[in-house]
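Training component of the fellowship. As part of building independent skills, the fellow (R.M.) carried out the full modelling exercise for a liganded target. The chosen ligand was S-adenosyl-L-homocysteine. The inputs are recorded below so that the supervisory panel can assess the work.
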Amino acid sequence: MIASADQIAGIGFTSQRTRTRMIRRLIDRGIENEALLQVLARVPRHLFVDEAIASRAYEDVALPIGEGQTISQPYAVARMTEILLEEGPAQRVLEVGTGSGYQAAVLSQVVDVVFTVERIRTLLDKARQRFRSLQYRNIHSRYSDGSWGWASHGPFDAIMVTAAPAAVPEPLLEQLAIGGRMIIPVGSQDTLQSLTIITRTRSGFTQREESDVKFVPFLSGKS
Ligand code: SAH
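Fellow's submitted model of the complex:
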């Protein structure tokens, strides 16, 4: 079913006023990309979580989406997307860890086409329904272990991983275009992980680390 204008607009805790407060907090925390801020104000985050917690959708926190997974907090989505766009526009982007579909929806509004993979079937099915009902037509999704990337659609201008592996999976590096960048939280679950930004150059890869972040684990296999 296509979401109605009223559903997308929200009321009370999901209204435009609440969303504007979220945007103001993101600006306070240092998000500067104007086009991205406009997208974050527009994408109805409350429709990416269960109705029971929709009223909390615009708080700057991660929220449960079932199967022990979470929708990333707005700041993490904003910062990772901002980094992805830092060096200019990206056309083809791969996301690993579709989850609720929210990050993919945000990406779909700032790049040409999004490919997203998820290893938990029930989450992917729900995310796909959301893409359909909100008519995001430039998102392609696949039920798969993202350790392998999505070679047939690569190379990608950018790859964003929204779960934390202990080390960067090799196939993802291979599917990065020259000049492309990967944003990936790397580290164990016992500590915070470092948000790592890897750029592919003609001769190899360069890497920098940003802030400490907390993401759910990157797991292999399908479920
Ligand atoms: N981007 C999501 C965040 C979801 S949490 C959102 O906006 O809601 C991270 C997701 O990564 C979880 O749904 C988890 O199942 C998925 N994941 C973890 N390891 C994965 C892997 N190897 N391949 C694909 N998805 C994976």
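The panel noted the following from the submitted structure. The longest helix spans residues 16-28. The radius of gyration is 16 Å.
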